[in-house]
Design goal:
The complex is a heterodimer of chains A (about 325) and B (about 350). Chain A has helices at about 10-15, 15-20, 25-35, 35-55, 55-60, 105-140, 145-160, 160-170, 175-205, 205-215, 220-230, 230-255, 265-275, 280-310. Chain A has about 325 residues and is mainly α. In chain A, α4 (about 35-55) crosses α6 (about 105-140), α6 packs parallel to α14 and α9 (about 175-205) packs across α11 (about 220-230). The N and C termini of chain A lie far apart (about 55 Å). Helices cover about 75% and strands about 0% of the residues of chain B. Chain B is globular and about 85 Å long. The longest helix of chain B is centred in the middle third of the chain and has 38 residues, at about 215-250. By secondary structure, chain B is mainly alpha-helical. The termini of chain B are close together. Classes of the chains: A mainly alpha (about 325), B mainly alpha (about 350). The interface between A and B is large, with 35 and 36 residues.
């Protein structure tokens, strides 16, 4: 008598075999959501995103609009006035008060969220794209190209980042875009180094050799085989980098090198009102806390993603 | 040990030469005309040509470099194009402000960073640990200028009139002046480098007051330094705390620590004698790296607290395209970093016998 062949129905009894396979992305997302840091970070950023998306719905007017002659009884640098919390109904309602140019501060802080989110993503995105490209070329080509590119990166890293950024903005002229460009340039070496390191680590592995033997082009190997293998450190460093980029660009704006009057950018708003610290501190602290919240959110999210994606760090 | 130190010092020399070359050429690459920055946008071409000739900018770059090196060898860093003040004089005025600020900021960061890191690693998952870790996370997320303004508001506005009030700007209270050390010691006719060094030290207010024994002025200058030092030191503090905690946790998980405990050593003895010396190496590395980023923070701190330090000076010189000032300051700053790195490397040898041998 022969042993009974394994039936398909036998396998279905095994609960493990019956579970539908989960995708890589879903697994990753679930791992990230298991991290407390990431969840708190995501929550903070959701508030910010909500404010940025619905800025025009939550407030009534253009953030740069001067309210003199528009609203009766409005004063400059007035403290917050919320009717529900007992502010006399005769006064116009301003949740965060008005700034020294008689503009609604709440409105400006909300619209500043748009600027900061854009600044964070655009700056880091630009740095990642250029850095990845430079690192990939350096690692893949090797030889003199590698030497020249990486020594160039070393030179950028030698200088204190903010000072180099100041020099770049000075050369290009003060504007928000140039400030972003400067901060991106200063950040490029970090991503170039990560990319180069991961190219070097997988370049000689067997599956690359196999791809080559199958006739895949260098470009194909670089983008389809090597890049997916180095995406994890890029995502982690990038998320952490967004917080830093928001900080640095707002610092440049604070120094007068970034966003120009009357753009509702938090750093520029703080710089403009820094002389009123003693009379209207809210004008500094509302945008200041918004800035802290943003950077804190991105840093927590970055930490959480790192803990989720890097099993060696789990403890 | 002596050969280790000597070899490490010799290795610094080529880097120093590379640095001089780099600083010179980078400041020449900086786009934007110096002439227009100085004479105004409506300067004529002829005016600019005359200006360039007077400053030697019409010479070929290698020739300019030769002149620069020649002067540098004599300790001449040139003069500010804007104000004609020699760069060395500017350095003697400005550098002490930042050195003093940086010293107290690092002191604050290292002292509290180590204490908090050790406490939170040895009491893992306690309330203190959770608060410290969360605090370190917030610490790296606060923009320096927001923190500075926040502290100024708390200590100069909210606490005004209480014993905790602290001054929000400047280096000394109005009406208080410090006599230069050369005058105090009656060395008025001293010249050259010794004079420069004494003037430099003399401009470090707290040092000046300390060596001359003017205690009330010492207290006043330190009171002015507390807020800026905390502002500048908070990011390094957060980073040092984190790295101390994680490094100590790594070490505390090792076998030899269990052995030490099995021998019957107290917890405190295990941490102090066995764990900490091995955990401190990454901390030293991070401290060295933080010194580099202090300068960027110094620009912001000096802006908020109205201090005329190096950060502001470089910022203003870059904005005015004052090449010689930028060059001189960046060179001195870079040499400072090299020295810090040298000290960090030497301290590896001191802390870790394996480094000395290899």
């Amino acid at each position: 008598m022969t042993a009974p062949a394994v039936q398909a129905s036998d396998l279905e009894l095994d609960p493990l075999a019956r579970r539908a396979p989960t995708g890589l992305w879903r697994d990753t997302l679930r791992n990230i959501l298991r991290q407390r840091n990431a969840v708190v970070g995501l929550a903070l950023l959701s508030i910010l995103l909500f404010g940025a998306v619905f800025a025009d719905v939550l407030t009534t007017n253009n953030p740069d609009q001067v309210l003199i002659g528009v609203e009766p009884g409005v004063k400059k640098s007035s403290p917050p006035c919320i009717h529900l919390l007992g502010c006399p109904a005769a006064q116009p309602e301003h949740v965060m008060g008005t700034d020294s140019n008689v503009r609604d501060e709440f409105n400006r802080v909300l619209h500043g969220a748009r600027v900061s989110l854009f600044v964070g993503f655009a700056t880091v995105g630009f740095a990642i794209v250029l850095g990845t490209l430079i690192g990939a070329i350096a690692g893949f080509a090797g030889g003199w190209a590698d030497n020249i590119l990486m020594r160039l990166m070393d030179i950028i890293l030698v200088f204190p980042a903010l000072l180099l950024a100041i020099a770049i903005v000075t050369a290009l002229g003060s504007s928000l875009i140039n400030a972003q460009l400067a901060i991106a340039i200063v950040a490029i070496p970090v991503y170039a180094r990560i990319m180069r390191a991961s190219v070097l680590s997988v370049r000689e592995s067997d599956f690359i050799l196999a791809s080559r033997a199958l006739g895949e082009s260098s470009k194909g190997i670089l983008f389809r085989r090597i890049l997916p293998n180095s995406i994890t450190p890029l995502i982690v460093t990038g998320t952490l980098g967004i917080g830093g980029a928001v900080l640095d660009v707002s610092a440049l704006s604070f120094l007068g090198l970034g966003a120009q009057f009357p753009t509702a950018e938090w750093g520029a708003m703080i710089a403009q009102e820094s002389g009123r610290l003693f009379t209207a501190p809210g004008l500094i602290f509302f945008p200041g806390f918004a800035l802290i919240l943003t950077v804190f959110g991105f840093n927590l999210l970055g930490d959480g993603i790192r803990d989720a994606l890097d099993p060696r760090l789990n403890r | 040990m002596a050969t280790f130190i000597l070899r490490r010092i010799l290795l610094t020399i080529p880097v120093l030469i590379g640095l001089v070359v780099l600083v010179f050429f980078l400041s020449r690459v900086l786009p934007g005309s110096q002439c227009y920055a100085l004479l105004g946008e409506r300067a004529t071409v002829a005016q600019c040509a005359a200006f360039d000739h007077a400053q030697g900018f019409d010479q070929p770059i290698p020739a300019q470099f030769g002149t620069y090196l020649g002067k540098l060898a004599q300790g001449d860093l040139g003069s500010s194009i804007r104000t004609s003040v020699p760069v060395t004089t500017l350095l003697i005025q400005r550098l002490p402000v930042t050195v003093e600020l940086g010293f107290f900021a690092l002191l604050f960061a290292i002292l509290f960073g180590l204490i908090l890191g050790v406490f939170s690693a040895t009491r893992r998952n306690s309330t203190l640990d959770v608060v410290t870790v969360a605090g370190a996370n917030v610490g790296v997320s606060i923009p320096i200028f927001v923190l500075g303004l926040l502290l100024a508001f708390i200590f100069a506005v909210a606490l005004k009139g209480t014993p905790f009030a602290l001054p929000p700007s400047g280096r000394l209270s109005p009406g208080i002046t410090l006599e230069p050390l050369v005058a105090h010691w009656g060395l008025g006719d001293l010249q050259g480098p010794p004079r420069a060094i004494i003037d430099f030290l003399s401009n470090i207010n707290s040092f000046n007051a300390l060596v001359t024994g003017q205690w009330s002025i010492l207290v006043d200058s330190i009171r002015h330094l507390i807020l800026p030092a905390i502002t500048l030191g908070t990011i390094p503090l957060a980073i040092i705390t984190r790295i101390t905690r994680s490094s100590l946790l790594d070490v505390l998980g090792l076998d030899y620590i269990r052995t030490a405990r099995a021998k019957g050593l107290s917890d405190r003895g295990v941490v102090r004698v066995h764990a900490l010396p091995n955990a401190v190496l990454p901390v030293v590395t991070v401290i060295g790296l933080q010194v580099g980023s202090l300068l960027g923070g110094a620009v912001l701190t000096e802006t908020v607290f109205n201090l005329a330090g190096v950060g502001r000076a470089v910022f203003e010189a870059i904005a005015a395209r004052d090449y010689s000032v930028v060059q001189g300051f960046v060179l001195v700053i870079a040499i400072g970093f090299l020295l810090v790195n040298l000290i960090v490397d030497l301290s590896y040898g001191f802390l870790d016998p394996r480094v000395r041998v290899s």
